Please model this.
Amino acid sequence: MKSMASPVLYLTLSLAFSFPLSSSTLDAMSKGTSLSIEKPEVLISPNSVFSAGFYSVGKNAFCFAIWFSNSSTVVWVANRDQPVNGKRSKLSLLKNGNLVLTDAGKFTIWATNTISLSSVVQLSLYNTGNLVLYNKESVILWQSFDFPTNTLLPQQLLTRNTKLVSSRCKTNHSSGFYELFFDNNNVLSLLFNGPEVSSIYWPEPWLLIWVAKRSTYNNSRIAVLNSLGNFSSSDDFTFLSNDYGAVLHRRLTLDYDGNIRLYSWEKERQTWVVSWQAIQKPCRINGVCGANSLCKYVVGFGRKCSCLPGYKMKNSLDWSYGCEPEFDLSHHNKNESIFLLLSNVEFYGYDVGYYSNYSLDNCTNSCLQLHNCKAVQYAFETGDCFRKSLLLNGYHSPDFVKNTYLRLPKSFKSIKNPVKEFSLDCSKEGTIQLDRTYVKNHEKGMVKFLLWLACGVGGLELTCIFVVCCLLIKTRKSPDADNQGYCLAATGFRKFTYVELKKATKGFTEEIGRGAWGVVYKGVLSDNRVVAIKRLNEANQGEDVFLAEVSIIGRLNHMNLIDMWGYCAEGKRRLLVYEYMEHGSLAENLSSNALDWKQMFEIALGTAKGLAYLHEECLEWVLHCDVKPQNILLDSNYQPKVADFGLSKLQNRGALNNPSFSRMRGTRGYMAPEWIFNLPITSKVDVYSYGIVVLEMVTGKSTIMGVHTTDVGNEAKNRRLVTWVKEKKNGEVATTSWIDDIMDPKMEGIYDKGKMEILVEIALQCLEEDKDARPTMKQVVEKLHQLENDLL
Ligand SMILES: *[C@@H]1O[C@H](CO)[C@@H](O)[C@H](O)[C@H]1NC(C)=O
Ligand SMILES: *[C@@H]1O[C@H](CO)[C@@H](O)[C@H](O)[C@H]1NC(C)=O
Ligand SMILES: *[C@@H]1O[C@H](CO)[C@@H](O)[C@H](O)[C@H]1NC(C)=O
Ligand SMILES: *[C@@H]1O[C@H](CO)[C@@H](O)[C@H](O)[C@H]1NC(C)=O
Ligand SMILES: *[C@@H]1O[C@H](CO)[C@@H](O)[C@H](O)[C@H]1NC(C)=O
Ligand SMILES: *[C@@H]1O[C@H](CO)[C@@H](O)[C@H](O)[C@H]1NC(C)=O
Ligand SMILES: *[C@@H]1O[C@H](CO)[C@@H](O)[C@H](O)[C@H]1NC(C)=O
Ligand SMILES: *[C@@H]1O[C@H](CO)[C@@H](O)[C@H](O)[C@H]1NC(C)=O
Model:
């Protein structure tokens, strides 16, 4: 199965038009008749699913369009770039067989350019949503299916001659910048065709075409979606929708944000639901923010753009023009440049020269040699150095190991540039000013580097609006080994029916865990995959909130996070389907003492990676809030996978301090002081809990040991473990072997003292009472990485 992970999202991306005119209905139009805008008439398909007629797109502006009768969702437009006047405009089927749209009684705006001498020529809207002009012999002269706009309906072919073109934006249906079409290699592709640059961004251009599982050999260039939700293309690209099977209506739409989504109509709620989408990380869509800008994804808002430091928006009404420098480019000479660090920021493409095994100085110096070098991308591990002549498609991602160093004039600090963010909408709303932290950091030599915590934790903590919190449910226990580890990304995320899951769990019989939020059952899907099915208590939250959350969790994809394979939401029932980890949790393995020091180290590192991903992936950021050994599952190679993240409710900080929220706090024994003292909750609460987990792991001493009686007692106990370790470390008679004193005696002294000392020191930093003194999860990963490299 090649369908990609695809969350169901609730989106209001549907073409937000105003409403069609209320009107009388027609079955067909024949030669010599017309539909006039003043006497509103619409053509209706025999099943009444589709309507065609004049559709209002603005003040006194109309398009001739086809829409779903019930939802008014437009699927085709004749004159999207040239709306007609609300007076004396009409669609006429002329005597010669030509169908024409005239504006204000005069200008022909659009025509099918058909000619027919046949005595009968008729225009009808078919049940499929196809508007068809045919003659007496039922020969099709013209059909709207041959001229798609931004939507492909089931059975409508996308061919070598057709393409989908997105709308300009949410409120404007004229042609936008994104196109879906077959490229010259026969590959179905998404193209950003912007005002200044154009580039293909799907399939990902850096993938070899066969890695992207496409074929270039079939030149028939045909793609089609069937009504069950099976899309297949002649380049071997196929997918099945999340809700494969009979659904009332479907449409595949190239949305104005450059993503292509399959929507299903949910009858009960009379709304469209996304059942597949091509791109999971919206900032990877090219052209999003134009040149010299950074894209970031904000939960609940969608994508936002901001100009790079030293740059300003080119056209304050239109993000697609990007940003331009506020400084004079002629200052880009050798003596007058500085470089500003943008951590984990990628700008794809436009490299002028690639060097390896360079020092950072070598890299920036080589940039200074070039007049048009705007920045360098540099990776410390490999010494890879790329000089950039254009800064396009910028986004931040902790996955991205290189940093970008932006070249700016020395006078940069005098440039007044509050970093502005703007949302991607036609309207000018939502300009938000953010605090940014600039930390100066001297490097030897003439080049100074400034640390810019753009999208990293610094920035996020300052701009934190949402905290996503957490639930707890026990994990599982099973003896058998299993190796269903890695090929998960390909298996796809889907919606399950309750009946399916009931069957998979044999009527919810084999309980493997239980927590405040529901019960976990073991199950076997019809394709024989073993799963852990978490049945949440009924009506924990509204269905819309639930779907929004599921879409977030479903999109998180990291080897150190447990995979979610699907969900079920029917009525009040809420179930989540996870991969099943045969090896149980860290808690179980700690108590059975099956771990050696290298494995402990790997678990510490992997857990840190998973949490760092949750905290810092710009796409979404999620606090876990319940980090503990029970929530760290192990695969067959002792690679940890963090579970139970993001089972959540979007809450702002105010709500976190609300007493009703207190039950969502983490598990006693692992809770940071902020919880107890009612201080703001940040990602540092997870850092704290992580520190406890590491100490427990290395000392073999548990902070909770099943004691769940008094809060205070337990918090005191976890303080005691911390204090004990600290005392040993800083003991009055500081000995070199303090580590031997604290290590789990069951290890029998077999471990690398140096490494373990550093690991414990890192854990203690994580356990600082003052949250600001704790490192971020990402810093922990970096430190452990260094250790690991020494280790190998
Ligand atoms: C359209 O809406 C009407 C009334 O709201 C409803 O009876 C009908 O089932 C709907 N049709 C579809 C196709 O959803
Ligand atoms: C829609 O966008 C186009 C292209 O930017 C613009 O020319 C047109 O005026 C816009 N229409 C409306 C109704 O805003
Ligand atoms: C989907 O369609 C393709 C091409 O028609 C076919 O090969 C494949 O078996 C179909 N998949 C399912 C699940 O029906
Ligand atoms: C090319 O693709 C079309 C449509 O998917 C399919 O019907 C045809 O069999 C393919 N041809 C070859 C040679 O694979
Ligand atoms: C750069 O500095 C050197 C010496 O510091 C000077 O000779 C040279 O003229 C300067 N170049 C420019 C372009 O200012
Ligand atoms: C990289 O450079 C260093 C010193 O500049 C050299 O010792 C090393 O062999 C180089 N590595 C490679 C892979 O070229
Ligand atoms: C890199 O920098 C070092 C020290 O500054 C210098 O010796 C070396 O020649 C530089 N290498 C290149 C390729 O510029
Ligand atoms: C982890 O603990 C579970 C439960 O005690 C046990 O079945 C499993 O074998 C342990 N894992 C390993 C790799 O030893």
Summary: The longest strand covers residues 172-182. The first helix runs from residue 360 to 368. Residues 333-335 surround 2-acetamido-2-deoxy-beta-D-glucopyranose (ligand 5) (CB under 6 Å).
